Queue: 4 jobs
Job 1
Amino acid sequence: MSRTAVIRGIGAWVPPRIVTNDELARELDTSDEWIRSRTGISQRHIADPDMATSDLAVEAGGRALKSASTASVDFVIVATSTPDRPCPATAPSVASRLGLGTAAAFDVGAVCTGFLYSLAAGAGLIAAGTAESVLVLGADTFSTILDPVDRSTRAVFGDGAGGVVLAAGAPDEPGALGRFDLASDGEGSDLITVPSGGSRDPVRTGPGRAAEAADPYFRMEGRTVFRNAVERMAASALRVAGARGWDVGAVDLLVAHQANLRIMNAVADRMRLPRERCAVNVDRVGNTAAASIPLALVDAMDDGTLRPGHRVVLTAFGGGLTWGSCALRWPDLVAG
Ligand code: ACO
């Protein structure tokens, strides 16, 4: 029987500080009513100023390792668009701080699809026999790249981290990851972007001038992205369910990237999946980018909407543009 990556543990963490819509409305020209009705979000967790993405990733990673009852893995993959520093990658520091010795470690940049891309990379390493076990984390502190005066992004994003431990197993086991459906469209790279600070538009310095970037903040063309996200996620989710031989009625839970409640409802409607079969925690955590899917999985386990044996479809869409999905039967796990 072919060697397959199986989910053996899961954990997630959000920073304790909660920022409500009303708090945002005291600073920005917005309102609780606007944010709730346009996004479904009531609050988000925001990292303290001295917290970096690796701090969140270490908390989530420790919980995932505990859930898998293991203290070692061969690889650590961190999906993030908000690395601690542009160079080096964040994953090696996360691996060291988790006591994982000299485990191989690298970052994946696929914005809000980063967790699914990383899961596919980890599963591929296991299927190829390069690794026996992989810790796959999604971690982002978008609060560090948001324009303080941009109400459309500040209303949406929150900080968090989550991840799973993958290990070698058999394709018919619960938790086994099947074929992934992954894609990108670089024609849309300007729709979700941090325009400056990279090699296209580097940080400038000059005599007597502090180093500065022309536009160091995250920018998103929300309306165009919205349409793309709905079409891409619905089609991709249907493809992976179909590849497993499941019709839509057989899907117990759709765990979509928690970008916006309206997007998730539109994806469900397009798939003809009852809306109640979508995992939702965007109301409590906002859009946590690469952390979104593992955070939603842990919350769904906690509230009983995700149970062992469930047929689950994971789907995401994000900057790049990137999107993708995978389908699995949920294993019997206790979140760390
Ligand atoms: N409060 C009040 N008004 C606001 C706010 C706010 N927080 N934000 C925007 N507005 C205003 C706009 O300025 C605009 O005003 P105007 O008509 O006077 O110009 C009006 O509301 C409508 O703006 P839209 O951008 O069309 O609002 P929309 O209903 O689309 O909601 C949002 C914006 C929430 C960002 C939505 O477009 C969205 O969720 N888009 C998709 C996000 C997504 O899926 N991203 C991909 C993954 S994320 C990633 O990869 C990082």
Job 2
Amino acid sequence: MPNTPRPKVIVTRRLPQAVETRMAELFDVELNLTDTPFSQEQLADAARRCDVLVPTVTDHVDAAVFAAAAEAGRLKLCANFGVGVDHIDLHAARVAKVTVTNTPGVLTDDTADMVMALILSVPRRLGEGEKLVRQGNWAGWSPTGMLGHRITGKRLGIIGMGRIGSAVARRARAFGLTVHYHNRTRLPPSIEAEMEATWWADLDAMLARVDIISINCPHTPDTHHLIDARRFALMQKSAYIINAARGEIVDENALCEALAKGQIAGAGLDVFEHEPAVDPRLLDLPGVVLLPHMGSATFEGRQAMGEKVIANIRVWVDGHRPPDIVLE
Ligand code: DGY
């Protein structure tokens, strides 16, 4: 509903205070003060009552939600707080004639930093070392204590060389890793040369060759369970897998089995297949570092994501094409 002076905006979770304040100045905003994720009924109710819905990754904005919106005929923009949109049924959004936007770019560095932190943590056993000290079990330095594996000189295989994958590659180069990548489209030669990156058209061949695998692609029907039991079997026994993208890209059951069988050496996970549930088998495995989906969790990043949401809504209210269109 462009040119509406104060559109009704419903935000499903608490956002940074400054973002909420600015939204209240600009829009007729309804906040979820409890910060508890909406049920499907609450989401459908919100979709009936607003012009703009601001969901997050914890919402399942499914076909029923868009059907409710279409029936009421009010919702026109779904301005996601986050870059990944796999929790939004884009086909149903198109049918309901709802535009979808996201927040790309502003969380690239933070997420790449988190990937790098996991790349450093898993082979060097930071999780185990930290636990040892905290639990009072550290008996002091020893020549053979807490040995891990050197990062320098290892081969990193990046799946998905978009914004975040490229930012990971640049960081990895500084740590002496060699960069390999699998992407549908090959990078321009000048960028490949800058990163000294090797492109693998064949994902299976890359997986068999690299020491550390970093998943940085979006979750789509094509990438669902991209890493499954067959692909774990291709990896080296000394390989580590890092996932700060989406849990559903990895078959978590196959991952647990691969770790338990020693098919791979370890995993660094910031995301899980059934968040916030974590497969209990992962909790007891030593070569695993687990984080609670915090790749973009910086004050600066979340503020910038909120500003992007606001910018997308404002441009749309003014009757123009929002800058971060996913679907229109
Ligand atoms: C993102 O932006 O996709 C983060 O994972 C949070 O949703």
Job 3
Amino acid sequence: MVFFRSKLRLAIASSTPYFQRGFSTSRIVSKSAIVTGAGQGIGKAIALRLARDGFDICVNDLEANSTKVNSVVAEVQSLGRKAVAAYADISKLPQVEAMVNASVDGLGPLDVIVANAGITKVQWGMDVQESDLQRLFEVNFYGVLYSDQVAAKQFIRQGSGGKIINAASLVAFRPLLMIPIYSATKAAVRSLTQSLAMELAKHKITVNAYAPGVVDTPMWEQGDEEMSAINGLPKGQNFKDTVSLITLGRTSVPEDVAKMVSFLASADSDYVTGQTMLVDGGMAFS
Ligand code: NAD
């Protein structure tokens, strides 16, 4: 823990207005949220959206992404909120514990965790190796479980309730070709979200997930390249071809997803739990 705390970079904005949070009207406090995998893509958009909503943000990612994390921290600060960078590989429980401690040390009581970090790998089911299974489940499932567990323990210690928001995917409802194990990890996240919602309700903790469709992020850039290597389509074509499956006729941007997470992090979703909310432009049923 000492090791990780020593790496914690505190970046605290000078003026921080206070306002009430959703769960209590009896005390005036600032709200805080941890967003994992927030150095780029959907996680970055969520961090910035929640900062606009009034949250102080713990920005998590792998240390290898520190330049991007620093820039997200600076953007959160420029929005007038506090920001803490906490490097952790969320597939390792002790690192997740250090991340939550770092957030509480830097930002105070925790209100929301967004377990967003995830990885993908394009491959045929027949070619899957044990190492693929292991890493995809370690990050996409164990990482979400560890984030949820450690945050929930913090919420229970605080006696405050809280909101847990997990990254699932359209493929938790409808798998897509060439990502069989990734799809299975996301179906597992959807199931876990329901189980933890039942288990944690008595502590006034809600547990929900978001299920993006096709979002223009570095993850899709990598996926598109890996698909091209398998099916020979030109770079970018696999991404473009998904449009024919999307009812609204366009792929999405990270901000489309951040809007849903903003709702799930707000008091407006207090009576919503165990749900995996599709943000897919109408792809799951098309
Ligand atoms: P991305 O690859 O662009 O960003 C993911 C971030 O997570 C990266 O900054 C990466 O460094 C970080 N990360 C990876 N492993 C980590 C670990 N072990 N510990 C901490 N951080 C780690 O991905 P994205 O497209 O922004 O996706 C974000 C989430 O949304 C993922 O869970 C993904 O599965 C899910 N999702 C994405 C799409 C899409 O179309 N892009 C669709 C559905 C679901």
Job 4
Amino acid sequence: MNVISEKIKQLFFDTFSTNPTIVRSSGRVNLIGEHVDYNGGFVLPAAIDKSTYLAIAPSNAETGKWISVDFEKSIDIKFGVFKPLPQHRWAEYILGVVEQFYKRGLQVIPFNCVVTGDIPIGSGLSSSAALESAVAFAINDMNGFGMSKKELTKLAQQAENEFMGVKCGIMDMFASIHGKENHVLRLDCETLDYEYFPLNLGDYKIVLFDTGVKHNLVDSEYNVRRLQCEEGLAFFRKHFDETIPNLSQVPLAWLQASRSQLNPVVYNRCQYVIEENQRMLSACEDLKVGNLRDFGIKLTATHEGLRNLYEVSCKELDFLVDAVWHESAVLGSRMMGGGFGGCTINLIKADVIDDLYARLSILYKEKTGIDLKMYSVVTANGTEIL
Ligand code: GAF
């Protein structure tokens, strides 16, 4: 228990006169392997020490009251009705998860809940996946459904895909649920096999610079990228091998031999995905032998691919990366997550972080008028009942 969990426990008790179960679920970073999860590739995320907290208990009625501390809102919910809640987008993440249990033929005991957390919202640190993971975990526990962590991860992803309409991959929920302190997760998104890698950064730290923007196109462009990748994969299946499981495994030679037949935009998207998957695998080798310099160089190369080939960056992200990547105390810098805003992830020598942040803040404010936020994060455990 910490200050936040104590606070919502008390709020829950004051509101509903009963003690809740408290579930904590982490936000995530992804070191490398961006936009490859939905292409069956490898990713390297970690759960971080910023979390969503859910206080929850059965309501003993057909309805439940859900409260968001951060949005200062509450909503009364009739269980079994699954309609959009346009005034309460935060509650849709909960409802979408409840719906998935119903879709599996599992009737959920109606519940009251209170939600809060310290994951910056809209910064690309997966506050929504953390909430969905916490809700899935809590419902599974409260109802004794006995679902595994992997099943709950898939359920949370389907909630986001189907109720929220965002065709996200599985990385965010997977990291949120399976995270482990001092480790990153090397996840094969095709098979969902995973391995924990110790994260020894020595004198370096994971630093996130928050652009403070989230451009509107984020969800629509994300879905467009998925379609473009599907178009590429269909082409390779038709012309090379119908059994190739996913785009990440397409050999670069097939792509190069197809330049004149593929739409140039689709070509670029495929090039990025194939290269990123290979880069990610070789970055893991760097990490294994403690070669942080080469690891960092690959992070920055990922940014170039996301900017030029995959085209999911934006001027604010590019500005932050361009301003720091060449500094000697910076191992690597890149945009992180879906793109079009959110944070950059940087590996920076601990003793220069404050100075670098001070300099960068001035430049960023001059350029964009926005106050730059910085989060120095460490890895943490995944979803847990406190
Ligand atoms: C978002 C999605 F939710 C993830 O599934 C992943 O595709 C990521 O963008 C890009 O790597 O966070």
